[in-house]
Amino acid sequence: MLGDKRVFIIAEAGVNHNGDLEVAKKLVDVAAESGADAVKFQTFKADELVTKDAPKAKYQEKTTGAGSQYEMLKKLELSYEDHIYLKNYCQERDIVFLSTPFDFQSVDLLESIDISLYKIGSGDLTNIPLIKYIAKLNKTMIISTGMANLGEVEEAIKAIQDSGNDKITLLHCTSNYPTSYEDVNLKAMITLKNAFNLPVGYSDHTIGMEIPVAAVAMGAKVIEKHFTLDKSMNGPDHKVSLEPMELEKMVKSIRNIEVAFGDGVKKCTRNEKDTRKVARKSIVAKANLKKGDILSLDNITFKRPENGISPRYFEFINNKKLIKDVNKDDLITFDLIE
Question: AFP-like domain: which residues (predicted)?
Answer without folding.
Answer: 282-338
